[in-house]
Amino acid sequence: MSQVDWEIRGxxxxxxNCDYGCPCQFNALPTHxxxxxxxxxxxxxxxxxxxxxDDLSWVAMFNWPGPIHEGNATCQAIVxxxxxxxxxxxxxxxxxxxxxxxDAITFLDIFASTVTTMHEPLFKEITFDIDVExxxxxxxxxxxxETTVEPLRNPVTGQPHRARxxxxxxxxxxxxxxxxxxxxxxxxxxxxxxxxxxxLVNYHLTHQGVVR
Length: 212
What we know:
Blueprint: E1 6-16, E2 35-43, E3 45-48, E4 51-52, E5 56-64, E6 73-80, H1 85-95, H2 107-113, E7 115-118, E8 122-124, E9 126-131, E10 136-141, E11 145-153, E12 160-161, E13 164-166, E14 175-185, E15 192-206, E16 209-210
Parallel strand pairs: 6-7, 6-8
Antiparallel strand pairs: 1-2, 1-3, 1-15, 2-5, 3-4, 5-6, 9-10, 10-11, 11-12, 11-14, 13-14, 14-15, 15-16
């Protein structure tokens, strides 16, 4: 199959069970030995070939029994209910790594390669309000998931504390704002994350990899 030209651009987040900063971002083992996470994105502009993906959102929930690179993950994707059949298929193709290029990869392709159990996707209304600069977000999927994000705070003064991760050659992002997130989900991938690592990102991903 020939490579499809695709691109998705917009704000997103990742909330996992690690301590703030997440050792995985520094090629270290996860805080608790395993990884539980949710990722989400609102596509402001996007396409998959001729299929327009503007103004759609997606969510993916993961559970790895050990470090991500050891694989054996369980995953479930949630796609915006407003997407038509072509858009749903396009987004799932991107999220499951089926649109990966031989020459360039993104974190979506890498994560997909570690999944052993991929549950059937859900198509639900997604409410996603995110402000990357101010490190706040609220993500709600009815009967499935809720994530809230707030800035890190100075333990003495209570004032917001700004920290960023800069990865010039990162396969997910180049710069991310770090915050505190909590997620509760139910169903195939149950998450219960409390005040744990969250990064907020302005994603720009294509079939050629991360746009830097």
